[in-house]
Design a protein that fits this description.
Chain lengths: 230, 467
């Protein structure tokens, strides 16, 4: 199909300009961004993230713990609050495997209708309350989409303030096969515009922010509250 | 008024009260949510201009960005294909499916797929197609084309969806609530995701500097469509390019708020190449089909502005005509104001010259468009062209010819209006005209106000110029 390729490229035009000039013009466009964003990231990015991630519109719940070692306890509380069986698919991440999961049956293969999966996000975005996942050996893509309940730990020092800050953190060539920005639980408005959670992806998303140094503590998020609101 | 395929479809739509109810339920919610999202963003107007400038920059250097995207996509292990038109695009997709020995493909909603007629091409090739987006699943069961670019099943009420699912799902359950319908669709499609040989999706953005393909979705079906099968095929219009991920972020803020009123969709995914060493999941083959299908022609035909379109659907939700007749009456892949501009490009003006006239030019669409596309101006451009090419029906040309003659002869014009006004009053009842000769196109669905006693010119004739 090289005929099609060459024909389209010729008809598209604009290839004769100096690439450096085009790149400079593209960069100038981004100079305008900081003054134009909806102002919602003030204070610590981790606090702004937690506030957004647990806002009612998001369809997710969130809590704060002091250390990753507290994650299994947070998961146990979540399972108890939802009266779920103590079993889950654990994202095959070394940091998660190293934790003490006593009392919970752990497996690494994820089922088609896996009731619960627990995972570790690469980071989060304060502006939108999004979790960031990069696919790889320790982060299969399907873990974010198959379970009914997805419980995710994310570290406070991995929260980027704005979408652009996340984008700037990874050079194009270093980007993974799949980036998933996950913003709340799966939902659909396809029948009469009515919002229903749990379309094909998880109906429930619980975020556990690992924040050893919450300064100052946010009044809405005392250390170990679990909000079962959905 | 001349009867055309469009007027027949519009008449049918106007006579369907269920349809109006369904349209109003979804577009009403969409308008309210969008308004709230825009009100919460004081810099929206300036951000919209940045969005416009980003797209204009790409369109001005389209060849450069296409070549850069191709280079980086190839480097990531993707296979890149080029299609000049719909037929070439379908042929490419079908041949990839055949090479993969595919019997069943899953598909995540893509308007470009509809534009190129991919559902038909797959059916002709004997390949089973499973639509996984809830709305696309509904219209696949109903055998309908999409009626909106964001909510393809907008024309169906919940009662109609319940009936469809009861008839087609193996384990439909009670179907008493929308929640039960969504759950039934989830059960029905669950196994299909894993059984497919090929997954097909569209693209919201093509990122030039990384070769990634960005999709924005809410249900989670897209990733379940693109991850398990051995082969993933993306079909994308060449206007979807952006220079970098950072540029995509500025457009994402505008796109999602304008479409659903949310800040970001639940799933914003960047696909970059096939499965890598050590990846536990993901497709072994990743194909991108870059489709022109009239887009480069739009560059030289005065329609470059339209290439900015993000397919957010806001112009549909705010259009007084779309809200009355819905999407099917337009007869093309894309309905509403953006459809009335695009359909003549895709189907030719002779087949679609009614669409640019099915517009009040009230400017709402341009006002809500997140990339400031001058839709009314583009629609007027098509009307001019339709006139120049002699495509207007004889009755319209005749009427305008008479009108032109009269306005060039003011005395006759005054005589004609002086005679018309009393005649019109003869048909009036209580201030409104319910039927009148030559005005059936108007009065079939609404009344015409009865004219006041004297014409505007008669009223001003004796008035003294104010000092
Ligand atoms: S023309 Fe503008 S408002 Fe309409 S779909 Fe495209 S981007 Fe949205």
């Amino acid at each position: 199909m090289s005929g099609a390729r060459n024909e389209i490229l010729a008809a598209a035009g604009g290839a004769s300009t100096d690439p450096a000039a085009i790149a400079a013009a593209a960069a100038r466009l981004l100079d305008r961004v900081p003054g134009l964003r909806p102002d919602r990231v003030s204070g610590r990015p981790a606090d702004a993230f937690l506030l957004r991630a647990s806002s009612p519109a998001m369809g997710a719940t969130a809590e704060r713990v002091a250390s990753l070692a507290d994650f299994p306890a947070a998961v146990r509380r979540y399972l108890a609050a939802w009266t779920l069986a103590p079993a889950l698919a654990l994202q095959p991440h070394p940091a998660l495997r190293a934790l003490d999961w006593t009392g919970i049956e752990i497996h690494e293969a994820i089922g088609l209708d896996e009731p619960v999966a627990a995972g570790l996000a690469l980071g989060g975005i304060a502006e939108t309350g999004s979790l960031v996942f990069h696919s790889g050996p320790d982060a299969p893509t399907l873990f974010g989409f198959l379970p009914v309940h997805h419980i995710v730990a994310v570290e406070a020092d991995r929260i980027w303030p704005w979408l652009e800050d996340y984008a700037a953190a990874f050079a194009p060539a270093s980007q993974p096969r799949n980036v998933n920005l996950i913003t709340g639980a799966s939902g659909t408005t396809d029948i009469e515009g009515a919002l229903v959670r749990g379309a094909h992806g998880p109906g429930h998303l619980h975020i556990v922010l690992v924040d050893p140094d919450p300064a100052p503590p946010h009044p809405d998020f005392p250390a170990t509250t679990i909000a079962k609101s959905i | 008024m001349t009867t055309t395929a469009f007027t027949v479809r519009a008449d049918r739509a106007l006579a369907d009260p269920q349809l109006k109810l369904a349209i109003e339920r979804t577009t009403g919610t969409a308008r309210t949510k969008r308004a709230a999202a825009v009100a919460a963003w004081p810099e929206f107007a300036a951000a919209r201009m940045l969005g416009k400038d980003i797209k204009d920059h790409v369109i001005a250097h389209l060849g450069h960005y296409l070549a850069e995207f191709e280079r980086n996509a190839l480097a990531s292990g993707a296979k890149v294909h080029w299609a000049r038109n719909a037929r070439e695009a379908c042929d490419i997709v079908v041949s990839i499916c055949r090479d993969a020995g595919a019997r069943s493909v899953t598909r995540a909603k893509s308007m470009l797929g509809e534009e190129i007629g991919l559902p038909h091409a797959l059916a002709d090739a004997g390949i089973e197609r499973v639509e996984t987006d809830l709305a696309e699943h509904i219209i696949q069961l109903a055998g309908d084309p999409p009626s909106h670019i964001v909510w393809p099943a907008l024309h169906k009420t919940r009662e109609q969806v319940g009936e469809l699912f009861r008839a087609h799902h193996r384990d439909p359950g009670a179907m008493a609530t929308v929640e039960a319908m969504v759950a039934s669709a989830r059960r029905h499609l669950r196994g299909r995701f894993m059984a497919a040989d090929v997954g097909i999706s569209g693209a919201n953005f093509l990122i030039a500097d990384s070769g990634a393909v960005c999709t924005v979705t809410n249900e989670g079906n897209a990733e379940l469509t693109t991850t398990p099968p051995r082969v993933h095929i993306v079909t994308a219009g060449i206007e979807k390019l952006v220079p970098s991920t950072a540029h995509a972020m500025s457009l994402l803020r505008l796109l999602v708020r304008s479409a659903t009123g949310a800040e970001l969709t639940q799933y914003t995914t960047f696909h970059r190449g096939p499965k890598r060493a050590g990846d536990p999941d993901g497709p072994s083959e990743f194909h991108i089909v870059l489709v022109d299908n009239g887009r480069t022609r739009m560059l030289t035909d005065g329609l470059a502005d339209m290439l900015r379109c993000l397919r957010c659907g806001a112009c549909l939700n705010h259009c007084v005509v779309f809200r009355q007749i819905g999407g099917h009456a337009y007869g093309g892949t894309y309905p509403g104001p953006m459809g009335a501009v695009l359909t003549p490009v895709l189907d030719g003006l002779p087949l679609s010259q009614d669409l640019p006239r099915a517009c009040t030019l009230n400017g709402q669409c341009q006002e809500v468009c997140p990339v400031a596309i001058p839709l009314p101006t583009l629609l007027r451009g098509w009307r001019d062209r339709s006139w120049r090419e002699g495509l207007e029906p004889v009755s319209v040309r005749g009427f305008l010819g008479i009108w032109r003659f009269l306005v060039l002869h003011p005395a006759l014009y005054r005589l004609a209006t002086a005679a018309a006004l009393p005649a019109m009053r003869l048909f009036g009842r209580g201030g409104w005209i319910g039927w009148m000769p030559l005005a059936g196109g108007w009065t079939r669905h609404r009344d015409l106000p009865q004219p006041s006693g004297r014409s505007f010119m008669a009223q001003t004739r004796n008035r003294k110029p104010s000092a």
